[in-house]
Amino acid sequence: MPRDEIALTELRGEWREQHRLDMWIRSLAVIFVLLLASFSGYYGYTKYVQNEQTPEQKAIAQAIKAIRANPRSAAARVRLGVLYTQAGLTDTAIEQFDEALKIARDDQEALLYAGIAYLNKGDYDQAIKYFDKEIKYYKNTALAGTNISLEQAYYYSAVIHWREKDYDLVIDNAAKALKIKASSADTHLLLGRAYYEKKSYDEAIASFDQALRFDPTYPDALYGAGLAYEGKGDKEKALEQYRKALKAKPDFKQAADAVKRLESAA
Hints:
Distance between the termini: 134 Å
Strand content: under 5%
Structural class: mainly alpha
Helix content: over 70%
Number of strands: 0
Shape: elongated
């Protein structure tokens, strides 16, 4: 092959190689641009979606991330369960509380919140099981007298027994709750209602008075006191309490009806 022909062939070979290189570089550039566009789109979408999340959703996402980082953390699962409860996802919340209890069977918060979740569902049988377990584990501990979670277990147990009309157990559990937190107006109210249903009017009035000691304008306690005084036959005192209840809560229909009834009878 002539020298010039060899040179031309070599030149053509170099051009072909350069052409391939140029094509490869251009292809790489196109791929890079596409990847960049894709990444930018993903980043923008992710950022947009994250910005669109409510604080509640963000908190749940963070709690899930914490569990993935440490699946054996009972505290992380309880936190997620509480967030699910607040979001109205009761069954999902219960699953997390139960997972926490698989890790630590006496986890007090898991027991308490699972019981409350079942109570909110109206499943009293399941709710009381969790409260009973908590009470069993913690009633004889050194710090039982200041254990607010234990106090809540007693209180919610009393609420369940109230709904089941077992007034003796209401009184028993409410009294135990008050030994831990004597300033709870709600517990004194519940105790007063149980005494009223048992027609123990003096005890009922004493309990309602204690509720009013800690919340002087508590409409339900004022109304309860009115019922108890009326049960005793003291209509004048009952009317006074009903009027106070209506003043504290102007749209309190039962109190308004009671005032109207007693004033008409006077």
